[in-house]
Fold:
Amino acid sequence: MNDPIICVQNLKRTYRVPVRRPGLAGAFTDLLRPEYRTVQAVHDVTFDIQRGESVAYLGPNGAGKSTTVRMLAGILKPSGGEVRVLGFHPHSQRQAYVRHIGVVFGHRTTLWFDLAVIESLRLLQRVYALPEAVFQERLALFDEVLDLGGLLATPARKLSLGQRVRADLAAALLHAPPVVFLDEPTIGLDVSVKARIRAFLRQINRDLGTTLLLTTHDLGDVEAISDRVMVIDAGQLIFDGTARELRGELGQGNRVTVVAPPGSLSALNAATLDLGVLWVDEGRGRYSAVYDGRLVRTPELVARTLAAVPAEDLELREARIEDVVRELYERGQHD
Ligand SMILES: Nc1ncnc2c1ncn2[C@@H]1O[C@H](COP(=O)(O)OP(=O)(O)OP(=O)(O)O)[C@@H](O)[C@H]1O
Structure:
């Protein structure tokens, strides 16, 4: 698999924002002599995405995720660097380009507000010149996976958030685009709608080979939908790898717990001391140790533990992805 469908090279985007001066006098001065400062939203970002990948784009608030997605979707013009998607320059070739992509914003709808959902879909059918049989087939798929049937006659403005996002997904995917960008598609949704949307996105990625790039704050989305994770902070990419590698990136927080006879603490500590692993007696025959997965090989730790005590049970817990991402952000702030 070496067929980059999305190529981003040294991408930059700045915004010019007016400086607000305090007080009434300040407001007048702002009107007469406006001053601006430059916000560097995306600093210098480079990545490739292969056809068929499903990539989560994470970062704290204000990191530059939406700005990147809007440049990829052709809505915003880069201030520097280059973006190519399916061979298009998204912004300068926007008219031809948008027929080949799908875009979903969790925050706002792309449906016509006053039209019933089915009428919006019919309009899009005409825009994309979809034959009736293909249209009906896709509608049936959306109904099956997104439970869209009951919503079709309702105007977009009357839909709940969860219903609206499901209808938006259908609209974005009606023409079966090979690439779909999603900006916080599960924001504010309840658990069952989230699960449905995650399953749907995973299905189109696996079955149709649709390339996905999604921004999210919900790490459940990452585990359910994406194979690869990119983390951006302060406009720069600080991590690019698999979710598994992300967990291993910091390694801290891996935990081993063992159930063994009372008084096993010293035997456990003696067995793993030279690995730098110290055990804690949690009571009722449970002993646990937290270790750094980069420094200590889990199989060796397990072998030594089992050789040291007659264990009844042994449990391993990898570092939680939430903790790793938080640590990455915190590390970014101190660098
Ligand atoms: N239209 C705009 N005008 C001025 N500044 C903007 C504009 N849009 C974004 N910014 C600024 O650019 C930076 C990056 O914003 P962006 O929305 O891309 O971040 P984000 O990672 O998507 O954040 P969030 O998770 O909060 O949605 C922030 O400092 C933000 O204030």
User: Anything to note?
Assistant: Residues 252-318 form a domain with the Alpha-Beta Plaits fold (CATH 3.30.70.260).
